[in-house]
Amino acid sequence: MSIAQLIILVVLLLLMTISQKSDAEFEQWCVADEQTPDNELQAAMDWACGKGGANCSEIQVNQPCYLPNTVRDHASYAFNNYYQNFKHKGASCYFNGGAITTELDPSHNGCHFEFLP
Ligand SMILES: *[C@@H]1O[C@H](CO)[C@@H](O)[C@H](O)[C@H]1NC(C)=O
Question: Out of the domains of life, which is the source (predicted)?
Answer without folding.
Answer: Eukaryota
